[in-house]
Amino acid sequence: MSADHTFAVHVESTDVAAIVRPVGDVDLSSSPMLRTSLEQAIAQSKPRTIVDLTSVGYMDSSGVATLVEGLQRTRRADSAFLLCGMSDRVLSIFQISRLDAIFTIADTLDAALGTDT
Predict the structure, then answer these.
(1) CA 115, chain centre distance (Å)
(2) Do the domain assignments include residue 39?
(3) What is each CA distance from 20 to 2, 5, 59, 71, 113, in whole angstroms?
(4) E-assigned strand segments in the chain
(5) At 92, is the secondary structure helix, strand, or coil?
(6) Could you say which of 27, 30, 88, 107 has the lowest number of CB atoms within 10 Å?
C-alpha cells in the first residue's frame, strides 16, 4: 500500500434504495469507513441497500467481512442487500469463498435497482 492511499465512500438515496459507493481499495485501513457508511445507509430503512463496487479494484478479507456484517444487518431489518459493479478481481474473491451464493450480485447499478431494461 502506498503512502498516497486514498479511500472515500459516497452514500446517496433514492426512493427504493440507499446506495453506498466506495472508491479505492477496501482493506484493513479503509474497511472501518465502509462499515460506518453502511451503518448510516442501512439506518435509512430503505427497501434495499446497494453497494456499488465499480470503483473498487481490490478488497481483502476485512472488506469482505464488512460486507457480510452489512448483509446480516439488512436481514435483521428485513430489507435487501445487493452488490453490483464488481471487477473480475473482486468477484473472484466472492466466488472462491462461495459467498456469491450468499450475496445477491448484480452486474450493474441499474440491474440492482431493477431499472435495467
Answers:
(1) 19
(2) yes
(3) 24, 20, 15, 13, 13
(4) 8-13, 17-23, 48-52, 80-84, 104-106
(5) helix
(6) 88
40 contacts 25 by C-beta, under 8 angstroms: no
Whole-angstrom distance, CA of residue 47 vs CA of residue 90: 25
Number of domains present in the structure of the chain:
1
- Over the stretch 41-98, which tens digit does the pLDDT of each residue have? 999 999 999 999 999 999 999 999 999 999 999 999 999 999 999 999 999 999 999 9
C-alpha cell at 65: 467481512
Residues with Cβ within 8 Å of 97's Cβ and at least 6 positions away in sequence, in order, are 64
The 8-class DSSP code of residue 100 comes to G
The one-letter amino acid at 97:
S
Evaluate whether residue 9 is within a structural domain. no
Domain CATH for 80: 3.30.750.24
